[in-house]
Amino acid sequence: MYIVTAHEMYDWDRKSIEEAGMDGRILMENAGRAVAEQVEKRVRNDQHIVVLIGAGNNGGDGFVIARTLLNRGYSVKAWQLVSDEKIKGDALVHKQLYLGAGFELAHLTKVNVLFRELDQADVIIDAMLGIGVYGKLKPPFDQVTAYANQSQALKIAVDIPTGVPADEGITDFDGLQADYTCIIAAPKLSAFLPHTAPYYGEWEVVEIGLPAKKLKKTSVSLWSSEHARPTLPERHPYSHKGTHGKALVIGGSYLMPGSIALSARAALRSGAGLAAVATPKSAWPSVSVHIPEATAVSTSEENGVLAERVEVDFTGYDAVGIGMGMGRSDASRTIVQQVVEEADVPVLIDADGLYHLKQLLDVLKNRTGPAVLTPHPGEMAHLLGITVTELLARPFEWSQRFAYNHGVYIVLKGPSTIITAPDGTQVVDTSGNAGLAKGGSGDVLSGILLALMMQSQSITEALCNGCFLHGKAAELLTTEGHSKADLLATDLIEGLSQAFRTLSS
């Protein structure tokens, strides 16, 4: 499923009508009927519904929704919030069809009259404004939106909640806080941004008949189980431990041995054939007790952290992960630089490795092998030299720019994880839940990604599937036996087996 900006959605509409010859009135009818069908799944016909109708396509959809629900026996009151001359084109056609069917239409003259209607409503359907809105709302939409937000009625938005921008980069706005949003044709970018996503509530996308072959593919798409199932690596019956890759994980310290243990164990649980751990000798007893299947790489240490270079032949490994729990000493930075410069195999850099990478960006650009960075927003902001607030306002743009300029893959972690390839293509993974907001979850993800990178033909597919498995494990565990509060990173590792089985069934 593709994710679109406002401009891309307008382009899809234009191509559908001008190049494919589709009738805009039919598309509007399809959209309104599709939304009405979703409303019927959530609303009883004895509940009172108020449809708030503005100008443009969103308002036109509102006329279709109101007419469809009234025809099906629902209690509906339609309110037109703009003057008659602002209802034009396809929306005007559907207004005339609504009136021609014999239904009443209320016109907004005094907001207090509408407010009394909203006080009696069980359901409010927001068909006021669509994807072309930027910034603060103007009257009467600002007043109506503010009042609706205080209502206890179920609020259903059509395509996008009124006032919410479709694109990233806009943080100063008024928006209707929907309980459910029925998105038309494709999700908009703002459905995945931390400052706008909450306005959508629960959401789903409805199909309205756009000509898929005529539409330009966008650079951003959504990953799901339908993508994961056919792309997960398969185990050949005659394979052996070397077939599925040998991973080297570098990190850990005397005071933080758990991070590297979690990553190594997650890598093996995710299908890696072999795993070796380069960690301080003082940390190894704590690591090995949790992962006896891993081997140790001889290292030197100072004050409980890795010292200087790691004496290892990188050609003996299929992928390297570095940074988890290794600390921020100068010696640690030297080891990160060593890996970036000398390891031609895929390299994954996380945690403290990302901290050191800020001073090694020129070295990073000169790599020949793939590099994967797995930052959370704070780490990504540090790499970019901006604030977290600035990053989260435009996470797609910042990730794309960094990945392209440095020739790396970025896994920007969050409720909507954004995976960006060096060519600028982006995939969003929304799996998981708040149970992942716990120390160690990121270390587990790094291990999963490392394993799949060694087994998949495509790095991007490996990263998408790894994020999806990580989130799926959390979802399954909190459905059966765990709560989002008690879920631990170690639980995630053990839950991977169920996630794999679910996706392979």
From TrEMBL:
Binding site for AMP: 413-417, 442
Domain YjeF N-terminal: 9-216
Domain YjeF C-terminal residues, every copy: 224-503
Co-factor(s): K(+); Mg(2+)
Protein family membership: Belongs to the NnrE/AIBP family. In the N-terminal section; belongs to the NnrE/AIBP family.
Protein species of origin: Thalassobacillus devorans
Taxon lineage: Bacteria, Bacillati, Bacillota, Bacilli, Bacillales
Designated name of the protein: Bifunctional NAD(P)H-hydrate repair enzyme
Quaternary structure, from the entry: Homotetramer.
Gene: nnrD
Cofactor: record remark: Binds 1 potassium ion per subunit.
Reactions accelerated catalytically: (6R)-NADHX = (6S)-NADHX; (6S)-NADPHX + ADP = AMP + phosphate + NADPH + H(+); (6R)-NADPHX = (6S)-NADPHX; (6S)-NADHX + ADP = AMP + phosphate + NADH + H(+)
UniProt-annotated binding residues for K(+): 58, 126, 162
Job description of the protein: Catalyzes the epimerization of the S- and R-forms of NAD(P)HX, a damaged form of NAD(P)H that is a result of enzymatic or heat-dependent hydration. This is a prerequisite for the S-specific NAD(P)H-hydrate dehydratase to allow the repair of both epimers of NAD(P)HX. Catalyzes the dehydration of the S-form of NAD(P)HX at the expense of ADP, which is converted to AMP. Together with NAD(P)HX epimerase, which catalyzes the epimerization of the S- and R-forms, the enzyme allows the repair of both epimers of NAD(P)HX, a damaged form of NAD(P)H that is a result of enzymatic or heat-dependent hydration.
EC number: 4.2.1.136, 5.1.99.6
Pfam families noted in UniProt: Carb_kinase, YjeF_N
Binding site residues for (6S)-NADPHX: 57-61, 130-136, 159, 325, 376, 443
Alphabetic keyword roster: ATP-binding, Isomerase, Lyase, Metal-binding, Multifunctional enzyme, NAD, NADP, Nucleotide-binding, Potassium
